[in-house]
Specification:
The two termini are 35 Å apart. By secondary structure, the protein is of the alpha/beta class. It has three domains: 30-204, P-loop containing nucleotide triphosphate hydrolases (Rossmann fold, 3-Layer(aba) Sandwich); 208-290, Orthogonal Bundle (Helicase, Ruva Protein, domain 3), CATH 1.10.8.60; 295-404, Winged helix-like DNA-binding domain superfamily/Winged helix DNA-binding domain (Arc Repressor Mutant, subunit A, Orthogonal Bundle). Helix 3 packs parallel to helix 4 (123-137), helix 11 (273-293) packs across helix 15 (378-388) and helix 12 (297-311) crosses helix 13. The strands form two sheets. The chain has a five-stranded parallel β-sheet with strand order 2-3-4-1-5, with helices on both faces. It has 16 helices and eight strands. The chain binds adenosine-5'-triphosphate (ATP). Adenosine-5'-triphosphate (ATP) binds at residues 19, 23, 26-29, 56, 58-64, 182, 216, 249-250, 253. Adenosine-5'-triphosphate binds at residues 19, 23, 26-29, 56, 58-64, 182, 216, 249-250, 253.
Length: 408
């Protein structure tokens, strides 16, 4: 067995490309920062804070900009004796009601040992406890609710918190809520009264384009990667790939980090385009596998049917043709097949997951029909399939057909 040896020729500080790293500098968000600062101004002036709602796709800097600005705000208000600011942040991802979020807030504010249980109280009792804690802190309190859409339609807290002073639940404490979401539908689904208050100031974060992503990558690479360890054009390539797909800085950073790890494992002295290609296909495969883990056996078989069509170079393929392929796969795996309509639903789900793309075709008097093709590289899809489906010989045959047809 080989020994563990330190490898440090590629990375200087790999953590700076990781999720938990908080950048000292925010690139390419000057306009959003200006608007955000305006929305936070009442805090500095000693008035009641605005409630702010931030939305935009995943990885576009909503959390990074919020953390950065709230740190700044806390530093800057320290100059004013009459402003006493506290910030409480909660990620609501695993909390899917107002009740659970309120319990989490209470427990964050209470000293260790004083936490309350997450079940068993009437909702208003938990809200009262929360008001008690907020009142005990006093001053101005900003409550950041990241991934606030997880709260779903049980959104009473979002109605109550901003009105707590008006309703005499708080006396001296001034509370502002900052809600962050990447679910565009969430805002519209909110009770109109909640919309009015929570969305007092709305900030939208658009996806990044390629030059913006390249700047973000450059400033992060300076900290994370050893001098001279990135080949010319590599950052530009990572940025272009992420811009084309999602416009997410997270995706661009992940790509660079993984490319660096691959370069390191191959004992290369610098990160090259090939390493980025390999990183891209590995990340894509992970995304497909993640999507597939959620699928039922029939969802997987429906996907394998499309993969098989792709191997024959017959995609985009109509639902009826995919269905024939699917029933054949069911037969060989000894699984009872579903009706065509159910398979069609599975294909739509796969489209929602970004694994397939669909086209609607018009066919005159017979109405419209859909055809599907893979929206991920063939190799990623088949690799991921061989990890989750026990159909070795069928998968091997599909691989052979693909290689005969030069499908990759
Ligand atoms: N403008 C920027 N400058 C520097 N780093 C950035 C910028 N935007 C995003 N990042 C980095 O990209 C990663 C993802 O950003 P962030 O977590 O803020 O996205 P988000 O919009 O909150 O996404 P999600 O909705 O998935 O939580 C983080 O590592 C963050 O530091």
């Amino acid at each position: 067995m080989r020994r563990f040896e330190r490898k440090q020729n590629i990375f200087r500080n790999k953590d700076a490309l990781g999720e938990s790293y908080q950048p000292d500098q925010i690139e390419e968000r000057d306009e959003e920062i200006e608007e955000y600062m305006d929305a936070l101004q009442p805090v500095v002036d000693g008035w009641e804070p605005n409630n702010i709602f931030l939305y935009g796709n995943t990885g576009v800097g909503k959390t990074a900009v919020t953390d950065y600005l709230l740190d700044r705000l806390q530093d800057d208000v320290a100059d004013y004796d009459d402003v006493d600011l506290s910030v409480i942040s909660v990620n609501c991802k695993t909390l899917n009601s107002s009740y659970q979020v309120a319990v989490e807030l209470v427990n964050k504010l209470r000293p260790a040992g004083g936490e309350i249980s997450s079940t068993g109280y009437p909702q208003q009792t938990v809200f009262k406890k929360l008001y008690g804690e907020l009142e005990a802190i006093g001053g101005t309190i900003l409550i950041v609710l990241d991934e606030v859409d997880s709260i779903g339609d049980r959104d009473e807290l979002l109605y109550e918190l901003p009105r707590a002073r008006a309703n005499n639940n708080l006396d001296s404490t001034k509370v502002g809520v900052i809600g962050i979401s990447n679910d565009f539908k969430f805002r519209d689904q909110l009770d109109p009264r909640v919309q009015d208050t929570l969305c007092e100031r709305e900030l939208q974060f658009p996806p990044y384009d390629a030059p913006e992503l390249e700047n973000i990558l450059e400033s992060r690479a300076e900290i994370a990667i050893a001098e001279g360890a990135v080949e010319q054009g590599v950052l530009n390539f990572c940025a272009a790939l992420a811009a084309r797909d999602s416009g997410s800085a997270r995706q661009a950073l992940d790509l660079l980090r993984l490319a660096g790890e691959i370069a390191e494992n191959r004992e290369a002295d610098l990160i090259e385009r090939d390493h980025v290609e390999a990183a891209r296909s590995r990340l894509e495969q992970e995304r497909v596998e993640e999507g597939m883990r959620e699928l039922t056996t029939h969802g997987r078989l429906a996907l394998l049917a499309v993969i098989s069509k792709a191997a024959k170079d017959e995609t985009p393929s109509r639902t009826r043709e995919i269905y024939e392929e699917y029933t054949a796969l069911c037969d060989s795996s000894g699984t009872d097949s579903l009706a065509q309509r159910s398979v069609h639903n599975h294909l739509s789900d796969l489209r929602m997951l970004g694994i397939l793309s669909a086209y609607e075709n018009r066919s005159g008097s017979r109405g419209n029909y859909y055809s599907y093709e893979l929206d991920v590289p063939f190799t990623s899809a088949i690799e991921a399939m061989s990890d989750v489906l026990r159909l070795e010989s069928e998968i091997e045959t599909i691989r052979e057909i693909a290689s005969m047809n030069n499908v990759a």
